[in-house]
Amino acid sequence: MSTILSSLRNTIISGLILTLLMLLTFYNWGSVDSSSLTDQAFYSFVFRWLHVLSAIMWIGLLWYFNFVQIPNMPNIPDDQKPAISKVIAPAALWWFRWGAMATVATGLILGYLNGYLESAMTLGFRGDGLPQHIAIGIGMWLGIIMWFNVWFVIWPNQKKALGIVKVEDSVKAASARTAMLFSRTNTLLSIPMLFSMVAAQNLF
């Protein structure tokens, strides 16, 4: 067991194997049959699962930055801060931005597979306009705004703040503040975004 858990790669592979075993178990129970493995509902399920996995990575890191890293940076001695800014933050930001990309991509694919993409993206002005489609559409637009902030505001400014892109100290400080403010904006938006997603599945 220690061989599995001491390696992140082995841990992830083992998690995927356990997931496959669960699928095979459901297949043997009759919950999943051979025909359903190739129909649209199954692919919808797969992309919903991938969407949730991606969103956990994205929002989990967003909340890590805002609830843990940013508030505690002033308490870290100056000689120890490079460990955060040079090692931890760049790695976390890689997973953060690609988690955002995967969340939006799988969400759009999921909407297409389930037939509500147009209705959701137009907030019901085109398509059937069902309340649950409008609710999930609000969540989708909030997620897209957050994705835009990640890729086109937070990440470019973090590159300057972390010294990945060399700039003057004044620009570096301003970039760090801009990245922080937009990260806080995304934290604010994440709350109604998640509410909209859950409401679409459970309130209507």
Low-confidence stretches: none
Quaternary state reads single chain
Largest sheet: none
Write the H/E string, N to C.
HHHHHHH
Q: How many helices in DSSP terms?
A: 7
Strand content: under 5%
Shape: flat
Radius of gyration from the alpha-carbon trace, in angstroms: 20 Å
Q: What is the terminal separation in angstroms? A: 45 Å
In which range does the helix fraction lie?
over 70%
Residue-averaged pLDDT:
91
Q: Which structural category do the helix and sheet elements fall into?
A: mainly alpha
Number of strands: 0
Topology:
Layout: H1 2-5, H2 8-29, H3 40-72, H4 81-113, H5 117-121, H6 131-161, H7 169-202
Helix pairs in contact: 3-4, 3-7, 4-6, 6-7
Keywords for this entry:
79% helix, mainly alpha, 2 domains, 204 residues
What does this structure look like?
The structure is a single chain. The chain is mainly alpha-helical. It has helices spanning 2-5, 8-29, 40-72, 81-113, 117-121, 131-161, 169-202.
